[in-house]
Amino acid sequence: MGVRVLHIAIIICIASTVCAVFGQVVLRYLTYQPVAWTEEFARIAFIWLCLLGAGEGARRGSHFLVGILASRLTGTAAKSLALFLNLLQAMLYGIVAYAGMVVLPVVHQQLSVALGLPMSIAYLAIPVGFGLMAFFSLVAAARVVRSPGGQP
After folding, report:
1. Which of 113, 108, 107 is nearest to 37 (CA)?
2. Coil, helix or strand at residue 113
3. What is the number of alpha carbons within 13 Å of residue 132 lying toward its C-beta?
C-alpha cells in the first residue's frame, strides 16, 4: 500500500511538471507572455519528483555502490559489510531528514514569488525524501540480517 502511494505521488509529480512546462511553452508561443506561476509550480513539482524518486531508488537498492570490496568478500564478511553500509546510509539519510525538519519553520515564513505559497512546501520534500531513503535503508539492513547462509 505504501509503495503504491509513493508511485502515485511520483506519477503525479511527473504529470504536473510536464503539464506545467508544456502549458508554459504553448502560452509563451501563442501570447509572447510567460506565465510566472507555471515555472514556479514546475520547479516545486520537480524538487518533489527528484526526492521521491531518490526514495524509490533507495527502495530498489539502485543507488550507487562501489562494489570492488563487496565483490571480493563472501559469507559473513560480505553480510557484515552490507549491514554496515545500509546502517551507515540510514544514519546519514536520517541526519539530512532531521536537518530538513529543522529548516522548515524558518522557510515557512518565506512565500514563493508567483504562487504565494510558503516555501516550506518545497522544502518539505527534503525530510520526506531523505526519510524515505533512511527507512528503505533500514529495511535493506533488516533483509541482510534475515538472509540465510551469510549471503547479503
Report:
1. 113
2. coil
3. 24
Pair 141, 152: CB distance under 8 Å: no
12-21: per-residue pLDDT in tens? 999 999 999 9
Q: Where are the domains of the chain?
A: 2-150
Q: Which of 80, 69, 77, 91 is nearest to 135 (CA)?
A: 91
Residues sharing a CB contact under 8 Å with residue 37, sequence separation 6 or more, in sequence order: 114, 115
Count of beta carbons in the 10 Å neighbourhood of residue 24: 18
Q: What is the pLDDT of residues 112-127, one digit of tens each?
A: 998 999 999 999 999 9
Whole-model pTM? 0.87
Closest residue by Cα to residue 99 from 136, 124, 122: 124
The residues that bridge with 132 in the sheet, in sequence order, are: none
> What is the C-alpha separation between 41 and 20, in angstroms, rounded?
7
CA 2, chain centre distance (Å): 15
Distance CA 144, CA 57 (A): 18
